[in-house]
Every structure is written in C-alpha cells, then in structure tokens.
Design a protein that fits this description.
The structure is a homodimer. Chain A is α/β, with parallel strands linked by helices. Chain A contains 10 helices and 14 strands.
Amino acid sequence: MLRVILFGLGPIGAAIGRLTQDKPNMKIVGAIDVDPAKVGQDVGRVIGLDRDLGVAVSSDAAEVLAVPADVVLHCTGSYLEQVKDQLIQCLRAGKNVVSTCEELSYPRRKHPALSADLDQVARDNGVTLHGTGVNPGFVMDKLPLTLTSVCQQVDRVDVTRIVDAGKRRLPLQKKVGAGMSEVEFRQQVDAGVIKHHGLPESAAMIADYLGLPIVKIEETIEPVMATAVVTTEYLTVQPGQVAGVKQICEAMGDGKVLVRLELQMYVGAPDAADTVRVHGKPDLTLTIPGGTHGDLATAAAAVNAVPLVAEAREGLRTAADLPVRFAPGKLAEVLA
Amino acid sequence: MLRVILFGLGPIGAAIGRLTQDKPNMKIVGAIDVDPAKVGQDVGRVIGLDRDLGVAVSSDAAEVLAVPADVVLHCTGSYLEQVKDQLIQCLRAGKNVVSTCEELSYPRRKHPALSADLDQVARDNGVTLHGTGVNPGFVMDKLPLTLTSVCQQVDRVDVTRIVDAGKRRLPLQKKVGAGMSEVEFRQQVDAGVIKHHGLPESAAMIADYLGLPIVKIEETIEPVMATAVVTTEYLTVQPGQVAGVKQICEAMGDGKVLVRLELQMYVGAPDAADTVRVHGKPDLTLTIPGGTHGDLATAAAAVNAVPLVAEAREGLRTAADLPVRFAPGKLAEVLA
C-alpha cells in the first residue's frame, strides 16, 4: 500500500486526490491546504468524493508531514522559488515528492543553484523529487524523447500542441484570453497573467538529454484572433476579439533552431492535436489526433508517477530519467 | 567512454556496430562471430566500415569476454533457449548485455524459470540484461505503455503496424512470403519459417505492466494476397500470389480481448503506419505515419540503450523498466 499526502487541494490537487482513490494500492493519509474553507474538513468531501476518508485537511504542513507516508502529491504553484520551501519541508520529512510545479519538471537551466540544492536535500534524505504533468512532463518532452530512442541521429525536434480551449473549463478559456480585445490581451501578457508555464523547461530537457548544443531559449506569446463568431458553453467570442493564445518557444543553437515548441490554446480550434516531428535519421512524425486532454492527463501523469517515484533512485529526477506508464494499482500476478 | 563488445555480426549486428562508431563515447573493444569468413578479420571491415578498428573478430567468446568492457551488444538469435548460454557467459564475465533476441524483450511468461535464472545470474554478477529493438521493444510495447502514462484508466490496448515490405531488403521481402502461392505460404508458416517474433512478448509486457488480467495469448499468421501486380526493386508479385503476411496476437481476459497487436508486412502496402489505440479514460490514438523504419530503428534502439543499461539497476530489465531516448554520445554541459 502506497500512503500519499495531498499538498494543495485546488482543482488539479483535488482531481489527483480523487484519482488516487481509484487505485487499490494507494491511500490518502494526510492533506494540507491553507484555504480556511477547507481546513478542518474531511479530505474526501474537499476533493469531491461523496464520502469521508477519515482524514481532516490541515494547514499545518509540519504536523501532516510527520505522519508516515511514501509520497507527497504537491500541487500549489508554478514557480519553483515560490514552492521551494514546501518541497524542502517534504523532503526533510523523508517523503518522496511528485509535484505539478511546472518549473520543477526540468529546473536545471533556469534555476541551476536551486536545482542542485533540491537534489542534494533529496539525496541527503534518501528520497526522490519529481515534477510532472501533461505539459510539461509528457507531450513536449517525455513523448518526443521516447520517440528519439529509435533514431540513429537527431538534428532538431518540433512539437506542436493545439488545444480547443472551448471544450475546457471556463477558467482555462479566460486564462487564454478568449473574448478580450487585442490591447487587453497584450496587457495581460505583459503582466504575466496570460502565460503557459513549462515550455522553456521542456525545450531545455529535450536539448540537454539529446546533447543538442543550445545557446539560448526564447519565448513569444501572441494572440489568436477570432475570424468568426465562436460560442462555447460559457462565453461567446466575436470576430476581431481574441480567441486564445499562441505561445512559441525556440531553443537556438549557433544561428539555428534546434528545438521548437508551439502551443496554441484557443476557442474554436478545429484541428486539436499533439504533433511531434523529429528531424534526423530517420525523420519521424507522431500525431495524437484530438490531443491529450489537459486536465485528465495532468492528474493521471502525477498519480501514475507515484509508484515509479517510490521506487526511483534518490535525488531530483526528471521525466527523462524515469520510465512512465499507467499505474494499475497492483501488477498482474506474473510480476509479483 | 563506453567500451562495447559485439556478439554476432549478421546484418543487424553489423548495423549496430557501425552505429556505435557514430557515438563519440562508445568504442568497440571486442567482436565475436562464428562465421569462418569473418573470424580473424578486422571488425571495422566486417561491419562495413572503410577502415580498420584494430580489433580482430574471434570465435572464442570466452577470450573476448575476458577483455574489460561495459556492454555486450548481442545479436545472434530470436529464441531465448538457443542464446541463453551466450547470455549467461556474458553476464558471468561481468558484462551488461543489450540483446536483440526477441524473446528476451519480455521473457517472463513464455520462459518463467529461465527468466528467473537469467535475472539471478545478472544480479549475482552486478550487471543488467536487456532485450530491445523496434518490435518488440518499442512500437508494440514501450510506445503504448508510455502513452498510458497520461490515462486515468486503461481497459484495452490495440496496436497496428503496417510495413511496406517492398521498400525493405530482399531477405525481408522473402521472409514475408512475397511471390509465394498460398499453399507454399501456409507450408512455410507451419514450418515456422514465416513468423515475426515478439508479438506475444509485447502483448504480455503491456498486459502485465498495466495490470490487465489476461488468461491466454493467441497468435495467428495469415497471408495478404496481392490484388494487382506489385513490382519492387527485387521482385514482382502477380495478383493471386502472396504479397506478405498479416500476423495477429491477442491477449485475452475472461472472454474479451485486452491487448490486440496486428502486424502487416507486405509488398505494396499503401498505408504504412504505426497506430496505437488506448481504450480507457480518456481514449487516446497515436499514429506514426509511414511507420518506424525497421532496420534503422532496431539498430538505434539497441545502441541508444547502451548508456541506459550501463547505468541501470542490476538484473533482467525490460523496455518498461528503463527510460528510453536517443544517446547523443555525450550529454550537454549542463547535465555533466
């Protein structure tokens, strides 16, 4: 039985919590959140189950982390500097950590010193620290890296992910700027509000593990303008308004692009898909028509990582360091 | 520097040898083959390079395996019973092994006792034993397993691989029966000549790692008949003759199919592709248009596994146990 602690009970943390309850070999033994509306409540109710689990949500992380447990599922923020103290607290309590913090997926380029510190704390405490999700964590890093295993030579990697934001939650539709004017959109970009986290981390992970000699990583965020009326379950976008966002990250070598990641998230996208192109020997293209569902997939990636992280070597481990697959709860008898 | 020994210098072994020479961190330090035409020759010439490597091919495995080396690249046969003594000899010499033996990719169901023995010998000698390739090893096992990492539930996995044998080597075109009569084809199937190895291994790997409760694995081999004239670089197939083979492997649960693998290899296939379908939550489809090139990819998979196996935990390790990716020779500085 894998004992898990939930650290952060927002929408993704709650989805992760519910999914652990589908696994016969996982049990929630603690839950941490600072929201006064959640503290003191039974975690089962807080994550949306129709039953109590006999574990009360606490805002006292130290107290919860004193409970014996195998893995902390951490979902509190995107910026590593903002969550590092939480992560260190988990590691010092001797707990393995799976986190959805986007910057943790591959922090070595943006935060080299902090990465080394986190790695050392994990090793000192004999545990593993791992950041994952669907993007970063899968579509734009793990999946293309896996594809390169059948290549004799790799010169460049391109990934395009097109998401129809109209089929997602309202917060996501708002987050991509649907319905805004272009001026408002650009203000929100400048304010750092409209921004998907993780593309530079994925680009760096690909480049470093493939040995592609990159010298800089650049990122741009542009609006996708609606050319016709788009109506979703929650809102209507008029022609000339913003339909969503197109974010491009390029990892450059000496004068040429070595990794190019393009994320389009807008309402009414007709051709949602994840597409990977490896330029090399041979050239390879891989497509997931419709694309990998963001919310479902991020919760799945985190929960499926639990048994792998519990078994992994100590230290900071990326998606490229670990095998990944669905965690069935228990393995078939032949493997027992 | 990773020192490798080549064990078996047929077409695939030679391709693997050539590819190691593209890696700045791999060096051939020994070569084993029983073919009198190769013994005593410089391995560089035998594998098709235009230069000597200063290593003579030897038929004396014990002598070659006494040389200090990190990994043996083993390519001598498809049947585990036939190559087990070679593998054990490598392991006892303290060498990690990457083998293209199809039955080694996931031997636990077909050869449970022998698997346990090989695992124990590897552990006793502190080394890793790994079977890989493109199929088995990637398209029908590692790739679908990787895709399931973003699934919340997995009910069934289907993989279809369609190969245009007309674009491959003559031996492969003959191996799939191109140009035979249907009677001759079925005789060759009954004689065990027309058969791609590895589908039951891939099906078992998927089922066991996903926890799908299979009770039996069945395999059928049928001809694909030509309906029009097909001309390849090497031969012509008339309508009514065999164009190639369609091999289907099904892993069954209690009355239903849980894993279905279909391999079509025939001349003139218009729609070559690898396609994975995961039925679950969510359903996911993944396509590699054109398909993964068999010869290039098998050599790549084996050579790319060398650094991973050199670092892996001791014992028998499958593609599902290891992360996979292109081996660049040396990692970028940030990872050093």
